[in-house]
Every structure is written in C-alpha cells, then in structure tokens.
Amino acid sequence: MSDLNTPNLMRDIKLLIIDALGLEDISVNDIGDDQTLFGEGLGLDSVDALELGLAIQKKYGIKIDADAKDTRNHFTNVASLAAFVTAKQAA
Amino acid sequence: MNWIKLEQLLLKALPERAVTDAPALDHAHLRERALSLAAGLQARGVRRLVVHLEDAAELAIALLGAWRAGVSVLLPADLQAQTRQRWAAEVDLWLTDHPDDTHPSHFQHAPLSGAELDLDQCRLSLCTSGSSGEPKRIDKTLRQLANEVEALEQLWGADLGTACIIGSVATQHIYGLLFRVLWPLCAGRPFLRRQLAFPEDMQRASREHPAFAWVASPALLKRMGDNLDWPALSAVRRVFSSGGALPLDAAQSLQQRLQQWPTEILGSSETGGIAWRQGEQLWQPFAAVELSQDADGALLIASPYLPAGHVEHTADAARIGADGRFELLGRLDRIVKLEEKRISLPMLEQALVAHAWVAEVRLGVVQENRASLGALLVLSESGLYALREHGRRSLTETLRRHLGEHCEALALPRRWRLLRQLPLNTQGKLPQAEVEALLLAPRPKAPEVLEQVETDGEWSLQLSVPPDLAYFSGHFPKAPVLPGVVQVEWALNLGRQLLNLRGAFAGMEVLKFQQLVRPGDEIQLHLRFDPERGKLYFAYRNDTATCSSGRILLGAGDA
Q1: Helix (H, G, I), strand (E, B) or coil at A30
Q2: How confident is the model over A3-23, as pLDDT tens digits?
Q3: pTM of the model as a whole
Q4: Which of B77, B210, B374, B530 pairs as cysteine with B366 (C-beta 3.0–4.6 A)?
C-alpha cells in the first residue's frame, strides 16, 4: 500500500473504531490521526483495546505478532495503527 | 507440594521457596519485608489500613505484614476521589501505588518476630457495589480466606503442580486475591506480579514458564484471537474464569484450541466461592457450601467462607437439581455486570440525577459487540438549554465526565436517548426490558403530535420536536436546528394523512424560513389544501412568530 492511500486507510480505521466499539455522537472528523485512543484522549478502555485488536486483524486479514514485545504500541493512535496495517500487509 | 497454612506463612523463613520473579523474591525475603512492615505499622500506631497495590507480591507483603501487626485491611476496588472520601474517616493509612500515599517499600524497620496469625482476629474488608447503590463493605476473617484456599487446593492442587500462576484479573477483588495471591502463596507456586491485560502478554508470560495456569476473566477469554500460538498454549494446566458469565461459544472455542474446558468459578465478594463447572451447564457447589432458596427462588448460601452461622441471601435466581447441582436463572435486582465489573444502576442513576441538566434517567444494558450501558434521559430546562446551545455531543460528554467521578470508565453510558418524558406504564413503572428495548430503538425522525384540530378544512397541530431527533446530529451537530427539508417533509406527511392527499410531490413555492426550530420546541403546524391549484399550504409557528411557511405542489391522481 502506498503513502497516497494513507489518508483513506486512516479514515477506514476511524470508521472501524466507531462501528466496532459502538461510539455514539462521534464522527470520523472527531478522531484526530494522532489522538490517543485509550485512557485520556478518546477515552477507550482495555476491553475496547481487546475488541479493536480483533476487529483490525479480521478486517485487514493480518495477525498481531503475539511473541513480539509492545505490539500494543501500534494501538496508540490512528496513525500508528495505519502504519502497522500497512507494514503487515506489505509483509 | 509443600502446603503452608495461611496463618503460618510468617512462621519460618524458607529461602528455597520461590514466590515470584522480575524482580525475584523468595519466601524468606517476603517474610522479612512483611515483618518489617508490621513493625513499621505498629510504630506508627496504625489500626486500619487501605491497601491498593498492582503488584501481587507487594500486596502479599502488605496483607501479611498488616495481619502480623494486628491491623485490619480494606481493599477498595479503585482509588477514585469518591472512594477516598468514603473511607477517609475509617482508616489511618493508605498503602498504595499512588505517589502521594505510602508504599510498602517505604518501611525499613527492624522486623517483628515471626508468629502464627490469629485466624479470627485478622481481618480483611472488600468493597463492592450494593443493590441500593451505596458501595458496600464486606468483612472477612482470615479463617474464611484460609478455608477457601484449602478447598481450592483439595480440588485442583494436584493438577496444578508447580505451575506458575498467570493472571489477567486485578488482585483487589476476591477472585484475583485468592487465586493469584493467597492460594499460590500457601501452595508454594510461583505467581506473576502483574495483571496482564492482553492475550499476547499472557502468551509471552506463559512461554517463559515450563508449567503455567491462567487466572483469567471472560473479558479476556472471549477475545483471544487466532494470532496466538495455541499448540504451545495448550500446555496450560488449567484455565480459571470468574467474575461473570463466560459465553458458551467462548468456552467451546477454548476447548477446541486447548483441548481443555475452562474451569469457571461462581462466587462474589459477599459469598466467597459458591460453585464451579467445567464444560457443563450445571454448577457444582464447592464441597462445604450449603445451598437453599427463598420464596423468590434466590440462592441462599451457608459455607465456611462466610461468618459462622451466617446465611448469605443472594439476588441470583436458581434451580437446584436433585443431585445438588444447579442452574442460574438471572439476577433479581438492578445490579448488572459489564465485563465482570459489577455495576449498580441505581447508584449511577442517582449520580446522574444530581446533575442540574438531568430531570429523570433510567439506565439499561445495550448488548452489542461489547455490552455497555445506555441512558434514557429526560432533560431539565437547563439541560435542554445546553442541548440547544451546544449540541448533543457536548451534552453527553459533559454528563459522562460528571459520572466519571462516580464510576469506572467502563460503566459510562455509551448510548443516550433523550426523551420528553419516561414512558411509565399504568403502574407508574418502567420495566427493565422496556428500558432496554427503548435503548435499541433508532432515534426518532417524526414529531410527536400532541393535539390536532380541524376548523373549516384547516388543520392546526400542536407538535413537540423530539430532543433526540435523528436529524439533529447530521447537519449542525453543535447547534442543532430542525432542517428546512425535514419541516417540508413533516408537513407533507401529516398533510397526506389528515387531508387524505394522494398526489405526488411536484415542487415547492414561496418557501420562507424565518425562525429556527430547535430540540424540545413545541410548535404549531397549520395545514390547508387548495384542491383547485393542488397546493398544500403549511406554516409552522412558535408562541410569538412564524418559523416557516410555504406551499407544496402536488400532482394530480393517485401517486
């Protein structure tokens, strides 16, 4: 996936977050690319993190490498998730 | 195994007995630190102590040290401002991870001597939400806890062997406290210090130990993906699940991946362990637990995990079979569980009603990918004003922040339905099933017709604009107004109904929009049809002025 597609990918990921987690009153425009998703920021919790992990793997047909340390750092914000998905799809 | 009774854990130093690693801690060091803490607590004259520590080994040191010093311990579920306020008057010291509190590592006193703990004098209190909404304190003696860990060892000790105990649940609650800390301490099984939140963390920790067992929750177990190395994980000695119901499909999926059914534990802070099951629908009571039922079918429990002679009255309806095993039939009160967190709906409702914007509220559970709370909300005058001025998102965010002071983020309602009034039934009640159905319903798209009268062919309707109209989110989410196109559509739909109009929409004339119509407004709609010209005249008025008016052209015939 080329860089040109990154804005679309980020938009898709935001939609996925809104749908998978049933967020009300939040639109794609309300989630910043670099906004922290968990805790402060968007205010998602650890169960959302689990749900989102499953949803991302399913939607993009990728696997989170369970043996690597700090895989959850990819879930910091939408931009880091997009980079993660791009890297995994290229691999 | 070399079992040490809970009350004898501080008697003798056993440097060969591992407790945990990262950093490594053996029994002798744990004992010395507990006895040093005991000396420090005595020196400070502490009688009652709050403990909230993430590290299971530090928690063990704090508990044993406190008990050795004759100090009773309170384990709150969190350290939120409300929690601190509630217990402040009852305790002398806060032993927590918070930088402004005291930490077990601050105690460097010369240790007290080792001694046997008094099973009936040592006390632990847990906190949970009661059905009235008030957090409830549950007091236990060391004897109750000791009885419980001994029963667990009888059942599963041999299977577990030397397995390292890896947990995804917090140790502030009875399940994590018993399974992750007290039981392994007595059994001499190593345990992990930290609670692991993600399946990947569980996998990495598991791989580091030749034998391991999981103390997990449904929240985690039902969300384990195929990215894990299941063949390697199937070495797990046992998978414990507690805190809430594990859905059958999640249990089945674990069985397929691990060739082992998870072991589910039924219990609560109040009751201690009640029963367990593994791949079965029916629950098997623990050996020493005596069950009965009241007239409503609620489970009554007597057991050595409760004070002697006490019968605990639960709010769980059950059907007990002839062989003593039983089936759970649901709760009899308004306590719900979300991802194993017990949430008192009345408590949150009280907290919401305390906000100036809220006139009335009812909460319910919305079952989707993840279950969450939803709120049916009747706004006060000031709440309606806030909605009109700043929009729905700002309103719900403000209310969520307000509630955030009273509960965990997980309990914050994710869905909000703003109503003009609560639809109480003829008994003045709103059954929970009705609350939940209303939360699942889509937001309204039509006005509420309060009154309609016809005079000489002209209709006058009194309309209420629903505060939660679906159209308010799309167009100007921060300044919700009723879109003109929706006003035309309402006039046309109501005109067709009342005047029996059939012609197809053919255009509009002299449309004027003069005043904004906003959430919660009551407005009049005047409708008149001129059959010769095929024009439907409409005008919306508020108390003082015309909001909008125009003519809708309708084609001839039966469209």
Answers
A1: helix
A2: 546 889 999 999 999 988 888
A3: 0.81
A4: B374
